[in-house]
């Protein structure tokens, strides 16, 4: 681990790229602020901000602006990455770091928790250290499940995965195995057991006040794989006995049964989601032993499974869901009034997220965004009623005119209306444009109305961008989700290709200037679209794509049971028909591939295979590999280079004039 605890911000010298990037590529490829948190007393903020390239720095800022920001922790991003911080006390900050290393001959991603004083002193690793006799390596460094450890300042509750020790030559080898909970002092590192490790436990949920109230277990099959159900248990107040709460059954990617999410100690209930009649809704169950269950909120036509929580205690204050845009309902009367007032104060930034709050919730950290605004962080003081800007999310875009995103729908070949988002170049009449279909990743995900740096970059460069929520996307119920975007790839890819045909039919896209760009599953969809209709798209850009379904199954077989893999990917015939790398001979359009060589989600071998197969068939293909980066390509310079190269590739393939710098 190369993390350093500093009292200064180092200067980073970086080599210039071989090709001069456009100003737009630099701006849109710049990384946003990673995280903002507030101390329990509301007097200090911790900002996790990107450095040039892939590094990041944690700085402490006085909430009243009375002192200059003080850097306390920095990562160069080469061997480690910071991805979130919060306060264990008014003087102590805890951060999560992610690394990728060679472990037992294979590369794995792993995490560790770190702590540092607000003045940069007393740096320590908070995650439990494994012994040299431990039978294996624990990848997860533990999550903080409650910021109130009930044992003085600096104390939190953390889950911890235990591995047994070898018994060879030892009489007192520790044989504990499984997930447990500890009370940890982030300063002294004193650890005390709260929940003993259980071999089949996968999660614990507290009440936000230091009490573990929910345990989730996943029985293993005879073959050692995780079973097809999750069992939820609860405790009554002031009791140590575990009682059955619910069982969630999983069939492939579809789950049924109540999934607990958050405990409200004042009401003595647990909130969670459950699918009824094919749609997710929010329910709550009493934890007093009565097991009374009631519907809290549902919305016809879409899934509602997102709780709005606030502050250090993660208090449930509302729910949110997405139709054409994200909507919310507040349960808390005071916050309901505040949300209405905020909508008037920030009319151009309707998407507001409660990021953090002080202990007493008198000061709130908010993030307000829109389709044409990456967002700004704000600090709201309830006592003074003042709303102060903390920082813009992506400052490099401040001078750029961004494009409004319009919610539309288009008919699939079978007549089904497919929801999508259309972004046109600024000032465009929307006719005869070069255009891009941009399917989302996942596939168990969806696009939402809001700011998207990829779509906005291409719109700025003169392209129309259409982002379809094809069948196989989440958020629209189990019927829309279907078998999965892999097993039922024909339907998902069919919808994506129909998006391109709609752009042409509407006169938005010229037939000779239609391209497809995708990341992860979106990259797979971009490539597989050419297998289905080789002449539709005239250029293909795929970032970190899946290219062979059989190879992806092989990568995942150690974590998933054969029946789960079959439910997600289908049989051998699906892998044969649905793998673009097995059909390189039908490709007509040029292909540009990007991939990080440390990708833990989709191996870089997938892109290498695709490039090799295309070259073997005499097709036009280029593969750009980024050393030391994973699936997300978390490097501002690399992202800028990627945007610039993709734009130049598309302009050449679509016979467009060069873009303005």
List keywords for this structure.
single chain, 661 residues, alpha+beta, 8-stranded mixed sheet, 11 helices, 36 strands, 17% helix
Structural summary, described in words:
With 661 residues, the chain is α+β, with helices and mostly antiparallel strands. It has eleven helices and 36 strands. An eight-stranded mixed β-sheet has the order 29-30-32-31-33-34-35-36, sandwiched between helices. Helix 1 packs antiparallel against helix 3 and helix 5 crosses helix 6. It is globular. The two termini are 39 Å apart. The N terminus is likely disordered.
The spatial strand order of the largest sheet comes to 29-30-32-31-33-34-35-36
How big is the Rg? Answer: 25 Å
Task: Please count the helical segments.
Answer: 11
What's the shape? globular
Which structural class do the helices and strands define? alpha+beta
- How much helical structure, as a percent, in the residues? 10-25%
Mean pLDDT equals 91
- Spans of at least 5 consecutive residues with low confidence: 1-18
End-to-end C-alpha gap: 39 Å
Query: What proportion of the residues form beta strands (DSSP E)?
Result: 35-45%
Q: Care to count the β-strands? A: 36
Largest sheet: 8 strands, mixed
């Amino acid at each position: 681990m190369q993390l350093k605890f500093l009292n200064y911000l180092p200067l980073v010298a970086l080599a210039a790229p071989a090709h001069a990037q456009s100003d737009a590529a630099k701006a849109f490829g710049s990384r946003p602020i990673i995280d903002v948190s507030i101390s329990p007393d509301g007097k200090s903020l911790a900002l996790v901000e990107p450095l040039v390239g892939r590094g990041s720095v944690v700085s402490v800022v006085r909430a009243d602006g009375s002192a200059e920001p003080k850097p306390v922790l920095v990562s160069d991003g080469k061997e480690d990455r910071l991805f979130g911080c919060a306060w264990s006390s008014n003087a102590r900050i805890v951060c999560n770091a992610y690394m990728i290393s060679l472990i037992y001959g294979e590369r794995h991603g792993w995490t560790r928790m770190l702590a540092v004083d607000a003045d940069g002193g007393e740096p320590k690793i908070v995650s439990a250290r494994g012994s040299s006799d431990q039978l294996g390596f624990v990848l997860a460094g533990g999550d903080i499940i409650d910021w109130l450890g009930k044992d003085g300042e600096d104390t939190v509750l953390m889950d911890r995965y235990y591995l047994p020790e070898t018994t060879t030559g030892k009489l007192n080898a520790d044989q504990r195995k499984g997930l447990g909970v500890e009370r940890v002092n982030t300063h002294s590192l004193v650890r005390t057991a709260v929940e003993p490790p259980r071999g089949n436990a996968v999660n614990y949920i507290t009440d936000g006040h230091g009490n573990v109230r929910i345990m989730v277990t996943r029985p293993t099959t005879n073959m050692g794989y995780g079973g097809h159900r999750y069992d939820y248990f609860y405790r009554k107040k002031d009791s140590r006995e575990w009682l059955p709460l619910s069982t969630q059954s999983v069939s492939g990617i579809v789950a049924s049964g109540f999934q607990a999410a958050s405990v409200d100690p004042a009401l003595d209930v647990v909130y969670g989601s459950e699918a009824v009649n094919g749609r997710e809704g929010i329910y709550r169950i009493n934890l007093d032993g009565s097991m009374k269950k009631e519907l809290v909120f549902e919305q016809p036509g879409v899934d509602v499974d997102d709780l709005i929580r606030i502050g250090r205690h993660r208090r449930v204050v509302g729910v949110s869901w997405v139709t054409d845009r994200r909507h919310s309902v507040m349960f808390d009367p005071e916050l309901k009034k505040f949300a209405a007032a905020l909508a008037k104060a920030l009319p151009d930034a309707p998407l507001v997220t409660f990021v953090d709050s002080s202990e007493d919730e008198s000061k709130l950290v908010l993030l307000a965004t829109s389709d044409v605004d990456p967002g700004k962080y704000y600090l709201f003081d309830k006592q003074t009623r003042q709303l102060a800007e903390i920082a813009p999310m992506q400052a490099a875009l401040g001078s750029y005119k961004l494009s409004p995103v319009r919610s539309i729908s288009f008919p699939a070949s079978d007549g089904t209306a497919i929801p999508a988002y259309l972004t046109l170049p600024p000032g465009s009449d929307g006719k005869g444009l070069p255009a891009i279909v941009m399917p989302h990743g996942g596939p168990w995900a969806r696009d939402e109305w809001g700011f998207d740096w990829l779509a906005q970059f291409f719109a700025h460069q003169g392209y129309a961008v259409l982002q379809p929520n094809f069948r196989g996307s989440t958020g629209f119920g189990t019927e829309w989700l279907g078998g999965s975007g892999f097993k039922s790839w024909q339907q998902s890819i069919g919808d994506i290709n129909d998006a391109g045909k709609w752009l042409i039919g509407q006169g938005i896209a010229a037939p000779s200037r239609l391209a497809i760009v995708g990341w992860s599953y979106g990259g797979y969809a971009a490539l597989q679209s050419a297998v289905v209709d080789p002449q539709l798209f005239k250029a293909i850009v795929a970032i970190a794509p899946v290219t062979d379904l059989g190879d992806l199954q092989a990568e995942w077989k150690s974590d998933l049971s054969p029946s789960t893999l079959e439910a997600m990917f289908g049989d051998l015939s699906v892998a044969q028909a649905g793998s673009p790398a097995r059909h390189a001979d039908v490709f007509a359009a040029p292909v540009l591939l990007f991939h990080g060589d440390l990708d833990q989600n989709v191996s870089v071998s997938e892109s290498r295979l695709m490039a090799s197969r295309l070259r073997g068939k005499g097709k036009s293909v280029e593969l750009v590999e980024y050393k030391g980066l994973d699936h997300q390509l978390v490097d501002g310079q690399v992202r800028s280079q990627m945007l610039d190269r993709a734009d130049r590739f598309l302009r050449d393939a679509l016979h467009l004039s060069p873009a303005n710098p």
